[in-house]
Design brief:
The chain is mainly beta and 156 residues long. Helices cover 0% and strands 17% of the residues. Keywords: Leucine-rich repeat, Repeat.
Length: 156
């Protein structure tokens, strides 16, 4: 179709229950916002979006993600807050993301492969379960003097 050169797609707030598989044909798509809908999953063809750097799917009913989401290698920002996610595909660890928002889901654990997320600079995991997903300790950053929460298991 005529949308092959589309770079930004915002379908937020439309009460959508599913997305068409043809979304994978938007090969030049860079930003995709499907927040505030009623989606349970994303189409497998999302893995074809190799230029996508921002994926926003907050406030849906996502219960799972297709493993193909790991093929979106350019993704830098992923926000999946306020969904029903109980687990994440290990393929997501191959992404070069810098920002990952998983707050307000049902996650009990993160895939062990997430330890490879070397470029991650911000991670939100709040309000997933009663026990913390990642044990954190208070530290002071030696360069900035800022108080930070750290975990020896996360990439440094």
């Amino acid at each position: 179709g005529g949308l092959k050169k589309l770079k930004t797609l915002k379908v937020d707030g439309n009460k959508l229950t599913e997305l068409p598989g043809t979304i994978g044909g938007l090969l030049l798509l860079e930003e995709f916002d499907c927040s505030y809908n009623e989606l349970v999953t994303l189409p497998r063809t999302i893995g074809h979006l190799h230029h996508m750097h921002t994926l926003l799917a907050d406030f849906n009913s996502l219960t799972h993600l297709p493993p193909e989401v790991g093929s979106c290698r350019a993704v830098r920002v992923v926000s999946l807050a306020s969904n029903q996610l109980a687990w994440l595909p290990s393929e997501m660890s191959s992404l070069q993301r810098r920002v990952l928002n998983l707050a307000h889901n049902r996650l009990r654990a993160l895939p062990l492969s997430f330890m490879r997320l070397r470029s991650l600079s911000a991670l939100w995991l709040s309000d997933n379960q009663s026990k913390p997903l990642v044990p954190l300790q208070n530290d002071v950053d030696s360069e900035t003097g800022m108080r930070v929460l750290s975990n020896y298991m996360l990439p440094q």
